[in-house]
Design goal:
heterodimer, A: 139 residues, alpha+beta, Glutaredoxin, two-stranded parallel ribbon, 6 helices, 23% strand, globular, B: 75 residues, two-stranded antiparallel ribbon
Amino acid sequence: MAQLREFAQRSSEFDKLGVSVIALSVDDQQHAHKVWEGIAQRKFTVLSDPAAKVIKQYGLLHAEGHGGEDIAIRTTLLIDPKGQEAWRRVSESVPDIPTADEILQRIKQAQGQVGGVGRRQAERSLQKTETPTLRQFRH
Amino acid sequence: MYLVLMSRSVLLAILVSLLPIMVAAQGKPYPKPQVPSASGKPIPDFTLKDRSGKRFNLSSQRGKCVLLYFYRGYW
């Protein structure tokens, strides 16, 4: 939830880098619309996958993860302009969800905008942002 | 002395009886992705409806970076 809000708040930065932000869940169309209108502030695409068809296709099914209902494993996936996977993070816990800062750095790396000393600094910065998995924050 | 031993035994019995509850509270482990990460490999295309019912193809984004975020839903 907080992640989607952050994407909306920083949508101009994603736009500047020419990145399409797409959120996807098992929510039906009605719920997806609510998320788009409220949390996403109409800033990015919200897709509805109520049968978890794509979630299963991507191997990201959390079977019976919400009161016996199937949901998606929380995953941030960066796809490069060629349609290839550039980076992904599977987040077991809320603190493990990458921040917008980290994602923006990853995007710049994928686009080759960070090189030489800047690249090393970015890598160090990304290492610092790696957060431990905290079981107590699971939900 | 007898009282100390008794209280220790009682405490141990309580802890042992609570063990299954503590284990259950841990819940199931968070699942691992069924498909491993494939950095540099093509991402499968898909078609889904967006929140307005309009069809969306991932391949329509070719040439752009895409941030695809899978969230839990049910809010």
